[in-house]
Design goal:
Layout lengths: L1 H12 L4 H16 L2 H9 L11 H11 L5 H9 L6 H9 L2 E2 L13 H10 L4 E4 L14 H18 L3 E9 L10 H6 L2 E5 L8 H12 L6 E2 L17 H10 L3 E5 L9 H9 L4 E4 L11 H11 L12 H13 L1
Parallel strand pairs: 1-2, 2-3, 3-4, 4-5, 5-6, 6-7
Helix pairs in contact: 1-2, 1-5, 6-13, 10-11, 12-13
The structure holds zinc ion (2 copies).
One zinc ion binds next to loops.
Length: 334
């Protein structure tokens, strides 16, 4: 089972086609649903493939793992799916102590909070901020007030298990059309870190989008502006807004500009990162991971930061958890 989980992790970090990932996720579900003796008996008699959802390659991984070997396919994958890191970007990656934007199964992520925390700790992080979607994003199974409260209870329990690693509370809150936030003030105030992102009406006229974003980043509760242009490389153009005005508002209200590491986003593009540096902004290099393997995408954002020469001391997730919380508390006081 661990071998299958690791295969899924490696495929995810390589941004593999969801079809290959699905085959292994499906096999994992099948294996989990059966008593271990039955899986072993079927592996020994080469009858795993009789099960629906298990094909030749997944069966081979299970058989080899049960025989006590590291599956050949996994050995190959471990080597082939390493996320490359240049020397310049390594300096940034080594300075990062946490990840401030990631999702779990509570919204549209594929892994449990536990699995995300264990993986982030394994990558050398001291903390992660759990930022599932807010209620408005129904396609992503966003959390309403009640579910967020339930999640906060679960995070408290998980923190007891994973200490000294820390799961900080947070949310990726939708920026509504008028710049309002998709969560009540009392909850916004209670969360450790709030990422605010535009997910709807990305094509609105620039002057409206500017007002919308400025209003959101000026909220005392917002700590990070997520993937600011909303672009999807080769699929969706960036939204248009007065970047000077938005970044100036970010700098003034201590809202960090996120460097989003997802390969299909890599948002903001270099010219906007340079503009944000010139405006005196803070930054956060975040994976926006929706699966454990995607937590390994931070190097992509580190490459972007290195390319644009982002001052390391302006990156908020190079801070320890306590220093980060002091920084966000300071933001809220403004
Ligand atoms: Zn988002
Ligand atoms: Zn996200």
């Amino acid at each position: 089972m661990e071998a299958l989980e690791r295969v899924v992790h490696c495929l995810d970090r390589a941004h593999e086609s969801s079809f290959r990932v699905k085959a292994f996720v499906q096999a994992l579900d099948v294996v989990r649903s059966l008593p271990p003796e039955e899986v072993e008996r079927r592996a020994a008699t080469r009858r795993l493939q009789d099960l629906p959802g298990i094909g030749a390659s997944t069966a081979k991984v299970i058989e080899e793992a049960l025989a006590g070997e590291v599956p050949t396919y996994l050995v190959q994958l471990e080597a082939d799916t390493q996320v490359p890191l240049s020397d310049a970007a390594r300096t940034y990656r080594q300075a990062l102590k946490g990840d401030c934007h990631l999702h779990s199964r509570w919204s549209d992520g594929g892994a449990t909070i536990d699995a995300m925390a264990r993986t982030a700790a394994g990558l050398g992080h001291e903390y992660m901020v759990l930022t599932d979607h807010s209620a408005r994003l129904t396609v992503a199974h966003g959390l309403d007030r009640e579910r967020l409260l339930a999640q906060l209870d679960e995070v408290a329990e998980i923190n007891e298990r994973v200490a000294p690693f820390r799961v900080l509370t947070g949310m990726e809150v939708d920026i509504l059309l008028d710049g309002d936030l998709d969560l009540d003030d009392d909850l916004l105030a209670r969360l450790d870190v709030v990422v605010a992102s535009v997910h709807s009406k990305l094509k609105m006229p620039a002057f409206e989008m500017t007002a919308r974003m400025v209003r959101a980043v000026r909220s005392p509760h917002v700590d990070i502006l997520g993937h600011c242009t909303g672009r999807m490389i080769d699929k969706r153009p960036p939204s248009t807004f007065d970047a000077h005005a938005v970044f100036a508002a970010c700098a003034e209200s201590h809202t960090a500009v996120e460097i989003n590491c997802r390969p299909e986003r890599l948002d903001p593009p270099p010219e906007l990162v340079r503009l944000a540096i010139a405006e005196g902004c803070w930054f956060s290099i975040d994976s926006d991971a929706h699966a454990t393997g995607q937590l390994e995408w931070q190097p992509l954002g580190c490459e972007r930061a290195a390319e644009c020469d982002v001052p390391i001391e302006r990156i908020i997730n190079t801070r320890s958890a306590d220093d980060l919380l002091a920084w966000t508390a300071d933001t809220a006081a403004r």
